[in-house]
Specification:
The protein has 281 residues and is α/β, with parallel strands linked by helices. The chain is 51% helix and 12% strand. The protein contains 10 helices and 9 strands. The strands form 2 sheets. The chain has a 6-stranded parallel beta sheet. Strands 7-8-9 form a 3-stranded mixed beta sheet, covered by helices on one side. Bound molecules: nicotinamide-adenine-dinucleotide (NAD).
Amino acid sequence: MFSRVAVIGVGFMGGSFALACKEATGCEVFGVDINPLAINRAKELMVIEEGSTDIRDMKDFEPELVVLATPVRTFKGIGEALKELLPSSCLVSDLGSVKGHLVYMLEELLGNRFVGGHPIAGTEKAGVENAFKDLFKGKRFILTPTEKTDPEAKEKVRSLWKLIGSVVEEMDPYFHDFVFGAVSHLPHAVAFALMEAIERMSKDIDLFKYPGGGFKDFTRIAGSDPIMWRDIFLENSKNVLQAIDVFVKALMELRSLIEDSSEEKLTAYLSKASMRRREIG
Ligand code: NAD
């Protein structure tokens, strides 16, 4: 297993991964982050052993695995830097929420030692101070290999995540983006838009002073990091746009049922949704 691991982006996910990886394997972690405060905080919290704001400083650490944990639009620049820096024996993986074309782009830059991955675990909180080692325990980890991925590299990454305590599954990179475009990216888009809608209706009264439990539950994820979500929406735009269209259609149907005072049909619409929601637990 890996004894020296580098994490690029020592925020909430990168920090949690560093802690989980150290507990599972006893490895040492080198952190790279453009924000010097993140590096200092990560050292204070003993999330990383060493770190730098300059990716080139990672070279002397001689990592066996490098994991990208930055917002997904930074991946291209980081991939280009890693191509120049790393020996071909060093594996590279990521924690990004979008795979599809990003996986193929990183594979093009770094070769078949790149293994794409996405932990299905997280919160709306950002920053290393919120990182915790048990984040990934019992949660899914989606590996997104391509036909070119080195089988040995893939198995090493799979074994690491199993040791961390995740349930590892494989998915085609583009299919991954359809699935998570629907069940993760769409709900975040709707939560951000709901906040905007309530803001627009707050002309004569500050409606945010009256949040009920439902409003708080529903909009919790709208407190997520805007840069991270900007990058996800832009990098998975095709699936996100299609999902928004389906959602708007479903919402407009609900609107019609209310407008038409269609008691029976409205009950059927709500019952189907309510039953489905209770089924997933
Ligand atoms: P975060 O904001 O907590 O951390 C990101 C860190 O990356 C920050 O410390 C930032 O300074 C650093 N950074 C930004 N650009 C950089 C660059 N060019 N080079 C080096 N460092 C850079 O965000 P997070 O929640 O940890 O998300 C990180 C990644 O994990 C994203 O790709 C996101 O899609 C993915 N992800 C997040 C969640 C979640 O719930 N938060 C879940 C699954 C996957």
